[in-house]
Structure formats: structure tokens, C-alpha cells
Amino acid sequence: MKRLLTLAISLAALTQTAPLLSQEVARERPPAPVLKKGEKQLFVDSVRIRSKQGITRVIHPAKKLERPVLTAEMPWEVRSEDGIIDKRVNIYGTVLRDKKTGFFRMWYADPGSVLYATSSDGIHWDRPVLNVMGATNETNLRLHSPSIIEDKFETDPAKRYKAVGNASMGVDDARLQRLKDKFEMVDWYRDKTQRLYYAAHSADGLRWQVDHEPILLGCDTITLSQDPVTGEYLAFHKRQGDPRVIGIRHVFLSVSKDMKHWSEPHPVVVADEVDNKATRKLKGGTYSEYYNLSAFPYAGQWLGFVTHFRRVEPPSALFGNDEVNGRKRSATGLIDVQLVTSRDGRHWDRCSDRSPVIPLGPHAYDAGSIFGLCNAPVFVGDEMWMYYTAVTTPHGGLAPDKQQSIAVAKWRIDGVASLQAKDKAGIIETHEFVPEGSKLTVNADVKSGSLAVEVLDADGQVIPGYDKESSMIEKQDAVKLAVRWKDTDALPAGKPIRLRFHLLNGDLFSYWID
Predict the structure, then answer these.
(1) 8 A C-beta contact, residue 431 and residue 50
(2) What is the C-alpha separation between 354 and 371, in angstroms, rounded?
């Protein structure tokens, strides 16, 4: 009894002299993160948003040209079999633009080889004679779905350019076993011709050395990206038969530090029941798959364009027949492009608006499907451009009706998605942060409405002099709109703040602080 009394007294003393742990945690405020000077904050997700009212996230579909920018024209780009003309070029590959000169370089493909084109404006393209594979614009790279980067981290000039792609280098069971020994989940692989993913390097992007040893199991499409902070390589690819997903077309990710040793692949973009329900609205619609993912770092985070394949069975539901003169149609369906987002390039989320960011049509050249895209966009003035493979027919089409060309999709800078308010004012409040800069700029379209910004302290109270009434922006539409208040255009310095945007009849795309 005496021991119990002593314990009770000790516990009472402890509660009087020290606060409970839960109370202590509740009183502590984690330090506000620093918002880097000039780093854009997009509204493609809600990671930096504390609250929103009367606001909808909206996808903005790309603007297109009336014609493709490149079609199959040269003799080596056009195939003919049994009198049937097959005109196909595609851009599973890459377009790079020189930051100093503005010059464009494109790596694209026909059914048999990787080709090279150049342009001064990104619209009109030339095919320079390379004299690598004769008097053509062919490189010596022989990989399907070639995806190329210019490696800014590489110190060896001979390996300035890196590529990945798919190929069958012949049946070699010993080589296949060496690859399988590097990974855990391998029993699903059954490809009889041993199509595998390979890596390659080049000094000039035209003359390539393909590594003898394959890097990953699987076949068909693959996209290469590079982490701008760590320099790691990210390979987004298909694994046809992996038991972790239903269907053969979904996106897996493997990461490497040296292009030789790759992490265990895991699925990152997989169709769900929301996708399947949308597909079943089509005549003959069955389920959804995801063909490939073009992922790229953008404004301190990652954006991705994923090709959504809405499967239709039988083929006659789309084409009116299942074969033409004995030529059977392959898996049939429609493919367009959706937006996905990530904060690290490894873990991906669907945008709340799943409408296509590159829809089909309205022109005939891409009315059927979009097969693949560049691994990253290019930036031209105040626009973002993405090159893609345009197809005249749905997947399962046959030549000569089926033609593939290369087209370009365009958005205003930061303009793939916005937060939108209609004729009732909406509010967006950010989490608190400490700004490195002082001048607030927004990318907004309020040509039919208005935008105002309040600055709040860490407790959510409006800081005197930073009220919404004195910061009104009306009837304007620009990618750079400076925000100022009655007596200042500088934000409070050196302390945590929040921003509260008041939006009416308009779209807010991004903001940053210089």
C-alpha cells in the first residue's frame, strides 16, 4: 500500500511539473519551409494548398496545328508490301532545343531505324544527310521506342548522350539468365524472341554504342528521364505479364545510378475502376490500360503525360470488321493522353481532372489515337511544346488507312492545368512558407474576371497593408502579372506567411516570388 501511495504522489508531481506529450506537440509549430526565389508553384496538385473554396481544378487541352510537323516522305520511311503503302514515323524518341541558339534536334523512328532531323523553328524540319548509314538521316541506333537524354552529369565526352530502347538481339539463354539473376520478379517473362530493354551511349547522338548486356526485362515501349538533383536515371517501361497488374500495358519504374545496375521495377501508373468505367461507356469498351509515360522534372516537381488505352472488343465495334483481306487487327481501342503528377519522380498521382490533356482530333491526322510522346517538352517563348505520334486510326488500324506522323501540342507556359472559379468568387489559401524573394508574380487568365491576393501571418490573420482590396487585378490575361498592394509591391521579409487568392471568373495557373 505504501508503494502504491508513493507512485501516485510521483505521478501527480510529474503532471504538475511537465506538460503531457500530446499537449507539448500541439503547442509546437513545425518550421515553415523556405520557398526558393523564382521557383514556380503550379496548381496541378494540392500539396502546397491549405484550403480551397468554390474552386475546381481544370485540365486545359493542348492547341494543335492544322497539319503534322513531320510525315513519312523519304524512301526509307515508307514501306510497301503486297502493293499496300505503309507510311509511319513516330516520336517515342526525343526533341532537344539548344538554350543559346534555339536550334531544335529530333530523334524519331520509322519501323526499322532511328532517324535524326533538325529545325530552326520547331515546325519546319530538315533531314540532314549524316553519312552514318549511307546518304540518309539514319543513325546507327537500332532500338524500338528509342528514348534519348543529353546527360548534364556525365564527365566522359564519349557518353554525353544516353539512350534506352527495346530490341531482340537473338536468343541467348545465358544472357537472359544473367539479367534475371539481378531481379526478384522474373518468372512472368515468356518472350520467345527474347525482346529486352537495352542501353546505349554516344558522343554526338548520331553514332551509338549499344551495351551488349540488356538492362531490364520486358518489351515494347520505354521512356528515359534523369533526376535533375541526383543525376539518377529513371526508366518508365512496360512489363507484359507481370502478375502485379491486370493486362499487359501498364507503366513500371526502375532507377539506376550508372545505366547498368537497375532497381527492382515496380508499377507506378496502373488503370483503376474509374478508368475502366469510362472505357465501358464506349461501344464494345472493356477495360483500360496505360501504354507509356513521358515524365519530366518541371518547376521543382515532376509532370507526366501518360497514354490511356481504352480497349474495345471485338475490333468490329470500332472498325466494322475484324480483318481486311486476311490481315487480322491487333488489340483495338482508342488512346489519348492524360496528366499525372509527382513530387519526386518515383511516386505518381492522378490529376483530379482526368480529361485528356492531349485529346484526339479535331484534325484527321490524330483522330484515331496517340501512340507515344517525346520524353520531355521544349519551351518556346511563353509556350510549352510536346511532340507526339499522331495516328489516323484507332489502335488496331491497318495500312493504308493507318498513317503515323509527328505532331506538336502547345500550351501556355504552366498551362496544362489551373484552379478555376466561375461567377461566384473562389478562395485558395496556401500553406505557410518563408519566401526567399519579395516580388509576387502570377500566371493567370482573368480577362473576364478578377484576382486579388491577401498576405496572412502564420496564424492566418491578414497582415496590415496586404489586403485584397488594394491588390485587385482585373480584365487581364498574361503569363506574368505582378501583384502589388496600395503601398508596396514587396512581401514581408524573413517570416512565415500564407497567401490567400480570391479568384472570380478566371484561371490561376501558377505563382512565384522573385
Answers:
(1) yes
(2) 18
| Whole-number Cα distances in Å, 166 to 114, 200, 205, 210 | 12, 11, 17, 11
pTM over 0.85: yes
| Separation of alpha carbons 179 and 213, rounded Å | 8
Q: Is the peptide bond before 362 cis (omega within 30 degrees of 0)?
A: yes
Neighbours of 376 (CB within 10 A): 23
C-alpha span between 477 and 469 (Å, rounded): 19
Which three cell numbers, joined as nine digits, stand for 167?
530490341
Rounded to 5°, the CA angle 42-93-157 comes to: 95
Give the Cα-Cα-Cα angle 195, 197, 199 (nearest 5 degrees): 140
Q: 459-485 burial, b if ≥16 CB within 10 A, otherwise e? A: eeeebeebebeebebeeeebbebebeb
Quick one: which of 240, 270, 268, 271 has its CA closest to 254?
Answer: 268
Residue 28 or 302, more confident:
302
Q: Quote the pLDDT of residue 29.
A: 62
Cα distances (angstroms) measured from residue 295 to each of 193, 208, 233, 344? 29, 24, 12, 11
Closest CA to 183 of 72, 263, 70: 263
Q: What is the pLDDT of residues 381-420, one digit of tens each?
A: 999 999 999 999 999 999 999 999 999 999 999 999 999 9
